[in-house]
Amino acid sequence: MHIPNPEPVNPLDDEPRKDFERKDVKDIPVVGRVPELASVTDWVNEVAALTQPDQIRYCDGSDAEWNELVDELVASGTAIRLNDDVMPNSIYFRSDPEDVARVEDQTFICSKKEADAGPTNNWMHPDEMKGIMNRLYDGCMRGRTMYVIPFCMGPLDAEDPKFGVELSDSAYVVLSMKIMARMGQAALDEMTKRNAPYVPCLHSVGMPLEPGQKDVPWPCNDIKYIVHFPEERAIWSYGSGYGGNALLGKKCYALRIASVMGRDEGWMAEHMLILKLTNPEGKSYHLAAAFPSACGKTNLAMLEPTIDGWTVETLGDDIAWIRLGKDGRLYATNPENGFFGVAPGTGSSTNPNAMRTIEQGNSVFTNVALTDHGGVWWEGMTEVKPPHLTDWKGRSWTPENGPEGGRFNEKAAHPNSRFCTPIEQCPILSEDFNNPNGVPLDIIVFGGRRENTIPLVTQARDWNHGVYMGATCSSETTAAAKGAVGVLRRDPMAMLPFIGYHVGDYLQHWIDMGNKTDEDKLPKIFYTNWFRKSADGDFLWPGFGENSRVLKWMIDRIEGKVEGVESPIGILPGDGELDVEGLELDEAGVKECTQFVPHEWADELPRLESWLGSFGNKLPKPITDELDKVREAVK
Hints:
By secondary structure, the chain is α+β, with helices and mostly antiparallel strands. The chain is built from 16 helices and 33 strands. The strands form seven sheets. Strands 1, 2, 5, 6, 7, 8, 9, 10 and 11 form a nine-stranded mixed β-sheet that branches. The longest helix has 17 residues, at about 250-265. It is globular. About 50% of the residues are buried. Residues about 1-10 have low confidence and may be disordered.
């Protein structure tokens, strides 16, 4: 994926210089309270001089600001206000059909040295990339407002809070960041009080407006770049208004840049949910789990257990920052403040707590379907489809015929359509969500979507074996990223698109974190696969709330209540250890979804060797040692 030379991706070589009347920054109107922090105001003025917005607005994150921006977006035709009786204080957007997901092929880690980006990232030298980006940014906000969005990742009262400031010409970004981060005046005041550093995040949809030019409902540009400068701790994004391409506190900051921060400062930024699990005796455990998008992460984060006496509370569904506590245990915090979930597949039968959270409103919906009574709908929300909808492209849609003028089998909602909802509305939110110290981890889970080979659940023998499991994570691709769906790809720790430096160094950092404390203080590591299928193509495991039975087995393992069975790939459930009481699943069915199948692993071995071989001499020796063990056992 390396791009060592800018010419093949430079769209500007033959483009003439832009010709427009440049405004002096002091002549650009300013709205809102200007901060008493020169590091912010100087940067804002520098960017404004380049991008030439019609107005600069310092955002305070208030409800009044929300209402004002929503009114403007509705008046311009960009947003639709939903029926307050159905979905209170919520709005609906349809994106451009070509701006619907992450653009991994145009996402860059611009470290000073190409070798530091590693084989899993696109790279370009920072100077070359800045040359391209500065030409794209030149005048790109003409006719628009530049919003100054201060935010904090995680609680404001943390010992070392991580701040950011995003400059964007999209009001959609302002509204979404209000939900997804501690955004606004409180964050700015705390940053000012501490005179704290921040990550500068620059975003533009890349569609300037000439005087009198009518805007489009979803401005964006065919040219798209999502760029990270890890040494500078800076993010530049251009051309997309969608999701993580534009909400730069999400994957760009909270994972790509934060992973570099964590490497340098001795902590980890991971693509993980965090939950609290309490057994019938009242003892609680904390679990962090990494799954690729659309593989059940949000469902597990808000699990409703089907086994009596067990309860789940959520602390986050997407990102965990993990630090070593003074007691030698690993503690996890969720740096976000909302849910940015994949809508399709989320319903009362699959994730009732998510639906209870969404139904309270105060949300931003993108590319779902619109009901005739001013609500939203997506595939999987209800068993019975509404008789009529307006689909994500604005077309009349019926279950029988699909969209008017389209194919009968087209979905009403885009597969990567999203709900953006405040986490405080979650009925099972843990009281420790705002704890600046985080929660101590008992278990870490890796997983993916595989039809075969990978058992339902496997426990690692020790920390390094668990790191090996995470390093070899694999899953069939989903709609969260632009490109082919259903292709098998390796996804280490579900971080493949999000590691801000060399993947080999990232794995070494995991091993180093384990070496900082005693093995018995580290979380136990497990690997799950809810998606294994039978020879007939049916799922072997019922999933959803029944996954609580797998979590119970994990707890039983760390409490020494079950022994498990040793296998070449780790410890598997022994006969009768997995609680399947009440399920239509006999012992043979349990065996089929939990067993080690030698010939499948013999087929897997060359793929594992090829994947880990791609790391070159950066592959940590403990990972090589674990591969050798699998090789010997399989052969």
